[in-house]
Specification:
By secondary structure, the protein is mostly helical. 62% of the residues lie in helices and 7% in strands. It has 12 helices and 3 strands. Strands 1-3-2 form a 3-stranded mixed β-sheet, sandwiched between helices.
Length: 264
């Protein structure tokens, strides 16, 4: 449906309520508090923009204030779950140390968690950490610079205070490291290139690739080979497999093989 000015005003009212509730949040570190202060400022400027422009077109609403309000809601969702009374400080502190090992500079990012009502709900959401366009747009339109970005990791509410079950979070942190540097996307493209160039030329090598990356079987057997760019976009299953392998290896640096008991 069309996102009208009336719907925007409803979302604006809900955002005001969320901001007012968040004012009582207490965090274990000052970067989260500063981030929330930026959110409050962003809301005030979005509200002023909407009220000063009564005849906004749908496209302007969707690409502008609605997108920025969505950003506020998503940020608050993770900040609310990252307060002192929700997630043990030690869990996030250990994840932050792991992030420091792989990220330079690491102090531009804050690990935050959101609790979900799904016992298998471990996941990583890349939106608030990786989307440069969003932050550039906020800076351009409202003159607000976010000094930090949120690394969003979801975990089941059931395991929020279970130090052993949360070893899976290191796997999810691996997804952030991969996304930040586009590690596996580049590796996947390079594997396709090597196959195309005939670097893997004997049956045992190709059989091993097919075993670990079955999604590449049709590409390996194809003759002639399709263009690499096209093949790269068509072989998403093998790309997903590679990403999961990488995250398992990343997690193993810190938790050995214990995450295998929970990752299925």
């Amino acid at each position: 449906m069309s996102y009208t000015k009336e719907l925007l005003l409803v979302q604006l009212a809900h955002a005001k309520q969320a901001i007012d509730r968040a004012r009582n949040n207490r965090y274990s570190d000052t970067p989260k508090q500063r981030y929330q202060e930026r959110l409050v400022l962003l809301f005030e400027r979005v509200e002023a923009f909407v009220m000063a422009n009564p005849a906004l077109e749908d496209t302007v609403i969707y690409d502008g204030p609605k997108n920025h309000l969505d950003f506020i809601f998503k940020s608050l969702e993770f900040l609310d779950s990252s307060t002192l009374n929700q997630i043990p400080y030690e869990i996030v502190a250990c994840l932050t140390h792991a992030m420091k090992d792989s990220l330079d500079p690491y102090d531009n990012f804050i690990i935050v968690t959101s609790l979900v009502n799904d016992v298998a709900g471990f996941s990583y959401d890349r939106w608030l950490a990786i989307d440069d366009d969003l932050y550039n747009d906020i800076n351009t339109k409202y003159g607000i610079v976010f000094e930090h970005r949120l690394v969003q990791i979801n975990l089941p509410r059931t395991f929020a205070r279970d130090y052993f079950a949360t070893v899976v979070l290191y796997h999810e942190l691996g997804h952030f490291i991969d996304a930040k540097y586009s590690l596996i996307s580049r590796a996947h493209y390079f594997i396709l290139y090597l196959i195309n160039e005939g670097t893997y030329y004997n049956d045992p090598q190709l059989a091993e690739i097919k075993s670990f990356l079955p999604g590449l079987t049709s590409y390996i057997d194809a003759s002639p080979k399709p263009e690499i760019i096209k093949a790269n976009s068509e072989n998403q299953m093998s790309l997903r497999h590679l990403k999961e392998y990488f995250c398992d290896l990343f997690a193993a640096q810190y938790v050995d093989n214990t995450s295998n008991q929970l990752l299925i």
